[in-house]
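Hi X.,

You mentioned you wanted examples for the new student's onboarding notes, showing what a folding record looks like when two proteins sit in one file. Here is a clean example. The first protein comes first, with its sequence line followed by its structure tokens.
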Amino acid sequence: MTPLEKTPLEDIFEIIDQTNAQDPRMTAPQGTAAVPTELLRGFRLSLVCEEFAPTADDLVKIAARAQTLESWQFEEADGTPPQENVAVIEGRKREHSAKRISQIMAANGYDEADCAIVRDLVLGKSEDETGRAQLLEDLNGLVFIQFHAVDLLKLYPAEQLAPILTDCLSGMSDEALYHAIDQMNDPVLIKTLQSIRQDISVEKKSIVYLD
């Protein structure tokens, strides 16, 4: 491969990004211009993956980037969710994103086995002998902590924050929670995350990517 040629992963990322750039919903991170919401989410998941588990294989990286691919199609024109059961809507989003990324991968040279792995990861049905599903869970938790937890401090007092975060982060591995604490600057969040780690980490398996 010459220096100008892209890797298969880069090709897939480009297609995912071009697709998610069509999201009509916009999010404006603090101090920056607004960008399509799902495009931003994909970027953030890839960012925390490179920070936390840079040796993760391409299949996890694809699943993370495409986890909510075209999910905006399940919103109403005004950006609000349809008036249906939330779990039903979330299930449809997962099924659609899983199907679309599987189609994209197949059209770009990935075999059925790899497509099935990514499809199951996005659907949340993956067997976790490899640690892939746990890592994807960790990446979602890390994105939540890094980009959204501080906003919760503006809405809730510290004593109410712990149960909210515990509910959101209960699926994370101990390594991921430690990483989140190590990267955090806010003293209230650090204390809260330390408490959560003590409460839930004993029940979680370590992930294999960090060996």
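Then the second protein repeats the pattern, sequence line and then tokens:
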Amino acid sequence: MVNLTEEKNIIQIIKEAEENALAEIENAKQADEKEIEMAEKQYIADKEKVADYFREKNKTAENDLSPEMDRIKNEARVKIENMLSKIKKTAEENSEKAVKFLMEKVITQ
């Protein structure tokens, strides 16, 4: 039978573990948001480079630009989708780690 002191200790351990897990998840989200922002900025920079290239090469850049822009958009979309997939995977892994951590703390008490 668990006495009141042990029960309070278990509750405190669980609260601390939850707080730590939430902090880790938030940190992962912020890092992932920065990666997405960087990818979007890179996409814009790449788009501008291509546009500049075609403007210099040919005055009819609008016609020449479309296929290249579509390719760049598709590459950026794939990059962003991959990052979002990584974010989801990281969040799931962090959640699993938090649950395992909580279970270990409860079991060891």
